[in-house]
Amino acid sequence: MRMEDEGLISPQQYEEAREAHLALVKPDNEELTYSYFIEYVKQYLIDKYGEET
Fold it and tell me: Which of 20, 35, 36, 53 has its CB 3.0 to 4.6 Å from that of 49, i.e. a possible disulfide?
């Protein structure tokens, strides 16, 4: 709606987008979802306590 209001898409494009079916796909591997966070925590702990601890 906002894109239409801003003139970025036509009213027809807006209606087509509203009617389009969106396919939501769950990731095959949930580990990928959290990998950034896990690496962040690991690095934080290494920085705080050292790698040998």
Answer: 53
